[in-house]
Amino acid sequence: MKDRRKADTNRSVGSWLLIVRRSQERVRTNEELSSRPGGRTSRKLTENKKTSMLYNSLNLEVAKIASKSEMRPEIAGVFFKNNLTAATDGFRLLEITTPVGVKPEEFPVVDGAAAMRGCQPFIVPARSLREIKIPKAKNGLPILQNVAIKYLDDKRAEFLTTDLETAKITTARRVEGKFPDYEQLWPAGAPAAEVVINGELLAELLGIMAKLDRTGAVKFKFYGKDKPVVVEAGETQKGRGMIMPIRE
User: Fold this and answer.
1) Rounded distance, CA 36 to CA 154, Å?
2) Higher confidence at residue 45 or residue 176?
3) What is the pLDDT of residues 40-83, one digit of tens each?
4) What is the 8-class DSSP label of residue 112?
């Protein structure tokens, strides 16, 4: 039974990595076409006037999901778009959209440093984001709790934060390659069940129950929108838990 579970896990991971590799092959093909006269895409970095971006601490926290291995630099980094950040390690994926109600043109200009209004998608190493320190809200300006992009080219990205007194610029190397086309991985159609639960309470429950299995495996059982979610785990020592849904 244990061997079959391990084999199923390996097949699942292998399928994911195959999709990632195929995505990279498609990207390389597009880049080859872009280098030809009349190619479909362009590698020139241009400013996008229609969308704007500022990133908060939650956008940076996706770095925790990035791969710890440097064998695939593109998934050991964080993917930035004008309206979101994303990261994956091949087993899980996290995407977080940028906060609403804040605009780069409202970001303070300090020491001549200003926020870009838009840019092409890019990747930087996840570890480089640890150096970015977002100041606490000051003078009733929550916009200061965001990070702006000050500069971007083919080699580096410059992240900008400020406390109104000084501007802090953090430079990160830009990762070559393209982030996997993960949109195709989201399940299509209506979900089998939708249950709203408290994420913090679930995290505490799973933190304990994952210790009951050497692989950290847990099983979820859903009985309906307003029914408790049951969680089971364990090989020799077994655990069973439940968490009540949040009633909307």
Assistant:
1) 19
2) 176
3) 333 333 333 344 589 999 999 999 999 999 999 999 999 999 99
4) T
Which residue(s) pair with 238 in the sheet? 234
Tokens found for residue 69? 């291995």
Residue 54 CB coordination number (10 Å): 22
Structural domains present in the chain: 46-183 (3.10.150.10), 190-243 (no CATH)
Q: With contact defined as beta carbons under 8 Å apart, do 15 and 248 qualify?
A: no
* Angle, CA of 153, 160 and 77, to the nearest 5°: 60
Ramachandran region of residue 210, left (φ > 0), alpha (ψ -120 to 50) or beta?
A: alpha
Ramachandran quadrant class, 111 (left: phi over 0; alpha: psi -120 to 50; beta: rest): left
d(CA 102, CA 106): 7
Q: Identify the CA nearest to 180 among candidates 22, 7, 11, 12.
A: 22
What pTM, to 2 d.p., does this model score? Answer: 0.76
What pLDDT shows up at residue 140? 67
Show Cβ contacts of residue 73 under 8 Å, excluding neighbours closer than 6 positions: 123, 125, 175, 176, 177
- What are the pLDDT digits (tens) for 93-119? 999 999 998 889 999 999 999 999 888
